[in-house]
């Protein structure tokens, strides 16, 4: 992210929109969504705006955004399109959701494993810290984008250890871009690869949109995923790449 520029990537943010749409379309989760949805990192607000509009959804959403410029941009956009059920809040998600009534959280979280030139996208030493915190909170349903360069197996294991079962996922390749090719970030990704915590090809990594549910009073038990598409299959997809280095920017 350039200073003062909210994060928006047509491919990645568009993928997040599709995942949000799928979440909003789920009939079985309606009782949970009726209590609202909270979002970590609204960015420009475009992904949630698009998803709510496409699904014609009236689910009340609170979108938290730490970055002042991004939250201003998002709030203005929401105002402009006239979406009364999407409220942008400038501030920290974890402080803001405490005591809230929402039981469902969604995020395209910061997942870069080093502080490059976009500190807003830093997800801690493995890139997974923000995701782990969301999965340690009180939510019954969580949708997160999980990245193959940020200890994906650790994230899936943490979710399972906290009682979550995967109810839906989809994945797509993402080409390394300016943020992930930042020398500090690509160096750290190579270290994680050597430690078995990052998986990629020289040109791309994998991003999966994963929805988990915890057994909840008043909700049917999560339906089993179709054979061959369970957590094990998702793990295969996220750990498929075995490159040790990212192709240099000049070779991209
Ligand atoms: C990868 S961007 C995603 C933006 C947008 N959702 C999208 O997909 O286009 C992650 C965003 O999370 C914000 N963020 C990071 N930690 C946060 C926190 N604790 N509370 C609220 N926002 C946070 C960052 O400022 C950044 O805008």
Describe this entry's structure for a reader.
There is one protein chain. The protein has 252 residues and is α/β, with parallel strands linked by helices. It has one domain: Vaccinia Virus protein VP39 (Rossmann fold), CATH 3.40.50.150. Helix content is 33%, strand content 18%. The protein contains 9 helices and 7 strands, in the order H-H-E-H-E-H-E-H-E-H-E-H-E-H-E-H. A 7-stranded mixed β-sheet has the order 3-2-1-4-5-7-6, sandwiched between helices. Helix 3 (46-54) links the parallel strand 1 and strand 2. The chain is globular. 45% of the residues are buried. The structure holds S-adenosylmethionine (SAM). The site of S-adenosylmethionine has 22 residues, from helix 1, strand 2 and helix 5.
């Amino acid at each position: 992210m350039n200073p003062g520029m909210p994060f928006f990537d047509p491919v990645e943010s568009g993928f997040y929109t599709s995942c949000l749409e799928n979440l909003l379309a789920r009939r079985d989760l309606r009782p949970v969504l009726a209590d609202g949805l909270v979002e970590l990192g609204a960015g420009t607000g475009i992904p949630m705006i698009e998803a709510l509009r496409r699904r014609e959804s009236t689910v009340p959403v609170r979108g938290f955004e730490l970055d002042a410029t991004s939250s201003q941009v998002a709030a203005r956009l929401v105002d402009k399109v006239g979406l009364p059920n999407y409220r942008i809040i400038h501030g920290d998600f974890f402080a803001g959701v405490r005591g809230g009534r929402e039981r469902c959280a969604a995020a395209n979280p910061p997942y870069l494993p080093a502080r490059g030139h976009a500190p807003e996208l830093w997800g801690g030493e493995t890139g997974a810290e923000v995701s782990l915190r969301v999965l340690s909170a009180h939510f019954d349903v969580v949708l997160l984008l999980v990245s193959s360069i940020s200890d994906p197996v650790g994230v899936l294991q943490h979710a399972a250890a906290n009682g979550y079962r995967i109810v839906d996922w989809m994945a797509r390749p993402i080409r390394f871009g300016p943020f992930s090719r930042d020398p500090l970030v690509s160096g750290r990704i190579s270290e994680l690869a050597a430690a078995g915590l990052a998986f990629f090809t020289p040109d791309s990594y994998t991003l999966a949109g994963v929805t988990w549910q915890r057994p909840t009073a008043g909700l049917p038990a999560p339906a089993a995923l179709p054979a061959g598409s369970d957590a094990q299959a998702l793990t295969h997809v996220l750990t498929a790449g075995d490159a040790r280095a990212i192709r240099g920017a000049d070779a991209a």
